[in-house]
Please model this.
Amino acid sequence: MKLSAACVVAVDVGSVRTGSFAWAAVDMPGHTLTAHGDDPAGAAGALSAALTDGASAVLALEAPMSVPVPRDWKLLGKGRTGEGNRAWSASAGAGALATGLAQGAWLLAEIARALPGLAATTQVSRWRGAADGGGAPLLLVEAFVSGEGKPVPTALGPHAADAEAAARAVAERLAGEDGADGTDMTCAPQRAFSLLAAQAHWAGLAVAGDELALDVLVVRARPAG
Model:
């Protein structure tokens, strides 16, 4: 079941101090850019406002947000299925992961402070359940914007362009006419450690305990045209 209204906020994680952080909000089902900015408070505020108004919301962080934990130590650090030559553990991915952990935790803590008792999930089916009065109204996903999926920088700068591209890609995936919610990357066949679920739990959001070991939805932005 598709939700009738939702707000997708994507964050291009990066240094706040040097201006490398950006966010963009896209509505569903219209996929219209509704807001953007370069401050974490604005991103948290956009999500909190949508949830307060009764809409469902999606936070997409452009950083590795689930990592494989193999039983065989020789496979530690190995890329996820679907990553190709851009493994989460390589220098760029590892740096984004560290930055995304801190920034994602801050964002979720701000949302939890604004909306005590809010339920969050990393599982699309549980998010969709909110349309029937159950489930969790806040969905947490990972976005991936790189290589051929990089958009042409706008007047707002390359980071804002990445954030908008990520938001649109996530909105399009969730609103697919065929109902497909397939992920572009997975930790399987290794065990998954969900950093999104861990951040949500730390922030004080209500998240099911089993999600710590479940894969998250990863959406890769595709080339335009």
